[in-house]
Amino acid sequence: MDVLMPQLGETVTEGKITKWFKSAGDAVKPGDNLFEIETDKVSMEVPAIESGMLSEIRVPAGEIAIVGAVVAVIAGAGATVQAAPAAQAKKQAAAPTRGAGLNVALTPAPETPRAPVKLDPFHEVRTPERNYGPARLPDGTRISPLARRLAAETGIDLGGVSPSGSHGRIAARDIEAAIGKGAGLRPAAPAMATGPSAERVKALYAPGSYEEVPLDGMRRTIAARLVEAKQTIPHFYLTAGMSIDRLLAVRKEANAVAPKDADGNPAFQLSLNDFIIKALAMALQRVPAANAAWAEDRILRFKSSDISVAVALDGGLITPVVRQAETKSVIAISAEMKDLAARARLRKLLPHEYQGGATTISNLGMYGIREFSAIINPPQATILAVGAGERRPVERTDGGISFETMMTVTLSCDHRVVDGALGAELVAAFKNFIERPAGLMM
Question: Is the pTM of this model over 0.70?
């Protein structure tokens, strides 16, 4: 049986095998970990679900394989060990196998709200349209990963392709037939601007004066998405200051009355960021038109406030999502964020825990940054950049001066979704909850 590179989320198209737990010739049984995958977001161990002998490893540790590629072969008892040539291994890793069986499975997370990912080689990979241009797949139509990739590479509009595969699926042969007829071709999308080549940059500096650090999958993905965001999203920025003295007092009192466990440790310790998450979630409910995302030919408006929170990792960042944050207490948000952040730093989040989200919070206040502007994470339409609280002189209504702890935030907006007045409403609603924190404890 062929062991295929599994699908680890809707936007993941390839993975790097970082470790093999078994060697060619080893016996395997269901539940035995075969190898470890690292994508641009997570790392995960992949177990076998069939018994037999690992007769062949086609993609060694350190190599990258796309989803659906054959990475190993498990044979029945009495089989002989085969050593695949390196060229053959790379060929297998570069192209998915069609029709091969899959004898690996991912262990679903407990209490996951979504259905488990199907890992058959013809499972539709619903990669966002930004990776494949503006093609639209008709509702209810399925397509094989190979056919989708061919359509993207050749500019075929999927809406004009007649499916011939089983159950109405568009197959690769349907794309090839459309190419032959010249039907459904779209104008090529404008190429994104690129900087000077590595060799041209290196030529500016003396040999030996620098160290070359190759890009890993996470940094490569971050670079591509940020360039895409700045080139395709019409950003504008709204900055406001707000007093957080009352919020700090509420936080201090809540932490002081937290119950203690048998060892005398508090049951919770609320951070300022926990209140910020709740305040933004409530503000989005008060200004629902801003609780939205851009979807090319339409705007998606969300019912719940799903808040992504930027978490720094070695070499990059990830944005786990607190879902339906408007319905959760600050204490519940705090516990959830501690768990998400801890597993994010270990790269153990599952795809549904970091994909989606209506908006993002990026907080650099703990680094002493007073204010900054963040880049929107598409397809979201906003991101809130949070600076440090600091004592500043503030004019009182009677004309006198007092010192208050002020926090500066900047909301980056996608002007296609959020106009200036709408963005200002959202910032004002957020400020109201921050400066009147009693509303966050209800």
Answer: no
Would residue 167 show up in a list of annotated catalytic residues for this protein?
Answer: no
pLDDT of 87-137, one tens digit each? 444 444 444 443 333 444 444 434 444 343 333 333 333 333 333 333 445
> 142: Cβ–Cβ under 8 A, 6 or more apart, which residues?
124, 167, 168, 169, 170
Residue 334 is assigned to a structural domain of this protein: yes
Give the chain's domain count: 3
Mind giving me the DSSP string for 260-285?
Answer: B-TTS-BS----HHHHHHHHHHHHHH
> Dmax of the chain from CA atoms?
91
Which domain does 170 fall in, by range?
129-181
List the one residue out of 432, 31, 414, 29 whose CA is nearest residue 232.
414
List the helix and strand counts (H, then E) for the chain.
10, 20
Specify whether the CB–CB gap between 71 and 35 falls below 8 A.
yes
Q: What is the pLDDT of residues 384-433, one digit of tens each?
A: 999 999 999 998 889 899 999 999 999 999 999 999 999 999 999 999 99
At residue 180, the pLDDT reads: 67
Domain boundary among 67, 94, 121: 94
Give me the CATH number covering residue 49. Answer: 2.40.50.100
Q: What is the CATH number of the domain that holds 358?
A: 3.30.559.10
- 148 and 259: one domain? no
For residue 16, pLDDT over 70 is answered with: yes
Which of these ranges, 23-37, 191-205, 341-355, has the smallest mean pLDDT? 191-205
Tell me, yes or no, whether 67 and 139 share the same domain. Answer: no
- Cα–Cα–Cα angle for 295, 297, 301, rounded to 5 degrees: 45
Tokens standing for residue 87? 């060229």
